[in-house]
Amino acid sequence: MDISVYRPGELTAADRAAWTALQSKAHLHGAPELANPFLSPEFALAVGRCRRGVRIAVVREGGEPAAFFPYQRSTVGVGRAVGLGLSDCQGVVHRPGFTWDAEELLRACGLAVWEFDHLAEGQTPFAAHVTGTFPSPVMDLEQGYEAYLGRLRAGSPKFVRSTFAKERRLGRAVSEVRYVHDERDPRVLRTLMAWKSAQYRRTGRSDRFAHPWITRLVHQLFHTRTESFAGQLSVLYADGKPAAAHFGLRSERVLTCWFPAYDPAFARFSPGLLLHLHMAEEGAADGIAYLDLGRGQKQYKDSLKTREISVSEGWVTRRHPVALGHRARRAPVRALRNTVLARPELFEPADKLLKRMGKFRSGGQVTDTSSKT
Questions:
Q1: pTM
Q2: Which terminus of the chain has a smaller tally of CB atoms within 10 A, N or C?
């Protein structure tokens, strides 16, 4: 393989255009997962402006780009998926029919190991290195919003009726309910991040927005807009004030559900569910094929999904002491986490404990918004 490795700022405009073109045509070649915005050049470049060690390997055939592999690396050769822990889709963006040798790719990138936790489907050369595969729920809009609602009603008619009834009740409780699909006011983005931080604390979770680089990344993506990519803020307003909001990434065909939150004052109206249904309706009208709700079990995801895709986690390794040491440190932690998440008899007590800790930290009542956003 002819492999060149670049820092984000070194990637040429022609290579970025070729990368985008591969994503734009992915669904035509039976690989819709490659159209995910987390696999876009814009996401890799934005992470590169906020974090050290981001690199992009370009594989060429006949002098033309055939594949792009974004990753992050440490000085000792430990590699991670770009934005590991934040990214909901990872892997190699490639031409139809292209294949690669996993160890040869790592060697060319100077990596002893490459860790992933949301590997896209169809990454066959990495399959031998997968340690677990998990469902990621999807709101399928391929046939349009009405078809999506029809499937939702067929599976859970009571949920659909009750959710729309809550929207009518919200409309009676306030003088105006308004939805904005693509809000450009950065003040609302700051409101959303404040809500999300408060939710993390209430539920005992680590506050992602306590990390300045994540806040910078979200602001950068909010201001990133091309024909094929955008950071998109969607907002449900009640009487001119945000009641629920979501920030995610959009490609031509996929909208990723990333940071949803709402004002707890409106909790009885399930504003987060209403927001997602509006996002689906407007997204379908805009050519979006599906909303990716992301890996993880949540009540609201189960309520909204109409199908699932799969993502995988694991490590691609070479025979190298750095790879052995990294995996030895990381594997037990990941295995314990997955065991707890997969077993209700373990997850429920752990979840209650986290919420209790969040209550003590916040000095208030425990309100779990994670299942309602």
A1: 0.88
A2: N
